[in-house]
Structures are given as C-alpha cells and as structure tokens.
Q: What sequence folds into this?
C-alpha cells in the first residue's frame, strides 16, 4: 500500500515536466523537434557566388532591353491611350476611353477615323491569306525534295530560302520594280496593269509577293520535319497497301503538325504587324494600309494623334494575344506530340 502511494506522488511530481509543451521538458522537446524540422540555410561558396554573379551579368543586357524597349514602352502606350498629348507644351490631358470610342464611332459626323481604322483592319485580315498559301507552297516543295523528284535540290533549297534571310526593305524594293506600271511583269507580258495604284490589285500583288517570299522558310522547316519521320512507319504502311499519297496524308502531315503550328503562330503574329508592304512596296496606297500603318499615320495627327495611335496599338496587342492563346488552346486537338 505504501509503495502505491509513493509511486502516485512521484508521477504527480513529474507530470508537469512530461506534459505536451506545458512543462519544462515538454517545451524543450518541442523546440528540439521544431529546430530539427526547420531547413538549414544552404551556404554557398565564394566560387558558387561568383558563378551566379557572372551568370546574372550575362542575362542582364536582355533584361534591361526588355524593361526599356518592351515593358516601359507598353506601360507608356497604355497611359497615352487615355490622354491627349500636347507635344509642343509637353503637357497631357486625361480623356478616358474617348480614343477607343473614336476608333469605332469616328471623329465628327463623317466618321473618317473609324472608316480608316476599319479599312486598315480589313486589309490586314485579307493580306493574311498569304500565310496559308506560302505554307502550302513550302509543303509541296518540301515533299518533292524529300522524294527526290527535283534535280539540284541543294541549290534550289538555298535559292528558295534566300528571301527568308534577306532584308524586308530590300525585297520590297525589288518587288516594286517588278509590279510597277513599267516594271518587269508588265513589260514581259506586254500589259499595263495598275498593280500598285488599284486598291484590289495591290492587295493581290502583296499576297503573291509574300507567298513567294515565305515559302522558302516554310519549305526548310517542313523538310526538316519530314526527315525526322521514322522510316518504319512508311514500311509498315506499305505492307498494308498504302501508297505514297495515303502515306503523306495519314503519316507525314500528322507527324509534322508541330511545324504547321509554329508557322501559323509566327505567321499570324507577323502578318498582324505588317508595315513594310504599305510603306515601301505600295508607297502608302490606300489598298495596302494595315493596322500598323494606320498607327504610324495617326501619330502626327495633332493632340489626339498619340492617343488614337496608342489606343489602336493596345487593341492590336490584345488581338494578337487572343489569337495566340486560342491557337494554343486548341493545339492539343490536332498537333502531334511524341
């Protein structure tokens, strides 16, 4: 009986120390566990810190370039789109969404601004037809080169690809000599077709020019994609009785769909930002006006010019982002993945 009483007294005396965090022992045990769970700070040596600094210095120039020429420019453009800027006085006036509304309603009763804006939008969309045409031409050339149907394929690859690595301004100057009223094309066929002065014909000329200029780049990419298609697939399909045409549409095209996706993405982004065609090739002809050319025109239109140009640039940026996101959204339904 005495032993039981002594044991109970001992347990009562030690209970606070073993309590979960309340006694001294419990508190010290909790601290030890927390200290053990806390991740230790990893100490970097001087060599590692030096390597990290050198790596940061290498990526610093593009970061600075992005901040100055992209991030800050985009921010200023958005701010200017809500203002009237008086360049001579260096002052600005906040006008809200008036510039965005004017792009759709027009300034004054005639609505000349809206008409010009929508005409440039229509021209830009119409000129995008050159993208699928150049892709089809490039795909056809790549298929012929892959099958060895064209003699001197190496030389032709270089010739077709030259426009892709040449200056856009130089190319448009050359094409202007070809399409002008007394140019090479009219002289060769003995005609006097007004390619550069007629609103519809100038768009046809631009589409033809861009299609021929772009097919070389598409050809190289498609050819690279075709060379990566496994020969085992063609051999297996041949055993099943598939011909070359069936193999092309059932094997080649689906497997090189990432190339098609890339060409569509880059082509649409570049096409929506087209400017040189209107400025250099068509010399400002109304049938060639694009959205970017409209933005360039508006920047000198008095106090409202900067605001209207900035609003149009913001809308164009939003449009490009939406088009790109939509393409990526639906790409998993048709783009081949390994």
A:
């Amino acid at each position: 009986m005495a032993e039981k009483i002594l044991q109970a007294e001992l347990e009562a005396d030690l209970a606070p120390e073993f309590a979960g965090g309340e006694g001294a022992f419990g508190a010290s045990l909790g601290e030890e566990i927390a200290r053990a769970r806390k991740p230790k700070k990893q100490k970097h040596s001087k060599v590692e810190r030096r390597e990290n600094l050198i790596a940061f210095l290498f990526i610093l120039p593009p970061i600075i370039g992005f901040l100055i020429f992209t991030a800050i420019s985009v921010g200023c453009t958005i701010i200017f789109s809500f203002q009237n800027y008086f360049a001579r006085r260096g002052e600005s006036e906040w006008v809200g969404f008036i510039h965005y509304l004017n792009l759709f309603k027009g300034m004054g009763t005639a609505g000349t601004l809206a008409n010009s804006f929508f005409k440039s939008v229509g021209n830009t969309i119409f000129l995008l037809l050159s993208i699928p045409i150049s892709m089809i031409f490039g795909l056809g050339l790549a298929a012929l080169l892959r099958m060895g149907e064209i003699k001197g394929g190496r030389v032709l690859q270089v010739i077709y690809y030259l426009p892709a690595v040449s200056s856009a301004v130089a190319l448009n100057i050359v094409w202007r000599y070809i399409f002008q009223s007394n140019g090479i094309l009219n002289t060769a066929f003995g005609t006097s077709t007004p390619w550069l002065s007629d609103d519809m014909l100038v768009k046809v000329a631009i589409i033809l020019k861009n299609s021929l200029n772009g097919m070389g780049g598409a050809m190289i990419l498609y050819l690279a994609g075709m060379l990566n298609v496994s020969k085992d697939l063609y051999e297996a399909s041949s055993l099943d009785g598939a011909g070359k045409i069936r193999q092309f549409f059932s094997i080649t095209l689906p497997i090189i769909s990432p190339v098609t996706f890339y060409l569509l993405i880059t082509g649409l982004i570049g096409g929506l930002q087209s400017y040189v065609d209107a400025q250099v090739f068509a010399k400002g002809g109304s049938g060639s006006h694009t959205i970017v050319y409209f933005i360039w025109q508006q920047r000198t239109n008095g106090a409202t010019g900067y605001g209207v140009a900035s609003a149009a640039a913001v809308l164009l940026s939003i449009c490009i982002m939406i088009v790109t996101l939509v393409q990526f959204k639906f790409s998993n339904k048709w783009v081949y993945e390994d």
Remarks:
- Residues 2-37 form one domain.
- Strands lie at 83-86, 91-94.
- The first strand starts at residue 83 and ends at 86.
